[in-house]
Amino acid sequence: MRAALASDDWFGACPAELQDALLARSRLHRLSHGESLFARGGQASGLCCVTAGALSIGAVSAEGQPAVLAYLEPYQWFGEISMIDELPRTHDAVADGDTQVLEVPRAGLLAWLETHPTMWRELARLACRKLRVAFAVLEELAQLPLEERIRQRLWLLAQGYGSRDAPRRRIRLGQEVLAHMLGVSRQSVNKALKTLEARGVVRLHYGEIELL
């Protein structure tokens, strides 16, 4: 497990002392497809990492429209914002397929950080990585046509939002989820993907998108 977790840039760069503390205090949650890990507005329970399957992070509007903020796969960490600001969860986290999540309970981790205050910098580093991604997405929304937005979002997913040294070439992602990420219709995403396929940028498979 430690070697697998170290494939994530953030965890791999953490001091061994912090890695030990996270592993020693962790517990494993198993979720079935569609099961919720936590809901928007809920109390933060701790720092988490997907170890199998995937989590869709998002929310549903008052009109019932789903929006997907992120799609997390192994071995991506999340939950650091609520660890820092102690505010409730900002979005829902729902399993896509059979999923396993490693959770480091908040109380135990906070107690350890009280005696190792310099390690807060590592959590801030994780939060800053997400902030950089958020700024890039905002710029993308403001400036780029849909085909380019899709291409850049797929590249972001392939890199695990900056957590992987070696990007994946095949992304297990439905077009409906991609549409919810971009705030457009599935038909628009399908049309744009076929344009990208004709340009030799991607190859479409059932339930997967291959980056060429």
From TrEMBL:
**What PROSITE patterns does its record include?**
CNMP_BINDING_3, HTH_CRP_2
Q: Name one Pfam family in it.
A: HTH_Crp_2
Q: Show where the Cyclic nucleotide-binding domain sits.
A: 17-106
List, in alphabetical order, the Gene Ontology terms for molecular function in this entry: DNA binding; DNA-binding transcription factor activity
Domain HTH crp-type residues, every copy: 144-212
What cellular component terms from Gene Ontology apply here?
A: cytosol
Q: Which InterPro entries match?
A: cNMP-bd_dom (IPR000595), cNMP-bd_dom_sf (IPR018490), Env_Response_Regulators (IPR050397), HTH_CRP (IPR012318), RmlC-like_jellyroll (IPR014710), WH-like_DNA-bd_sf (IPR036388), WH_DNA-bd_sf (IPR036390)
Keywords, sorted A to Z? DNA-binding, Transcription, Transcription regulation
Annotated signal peptide: none
Entry protein name = Crp/Fnr family transcriptional regulator
Organism name? Hydrogenophaga taeniospiralis CCUG 15921
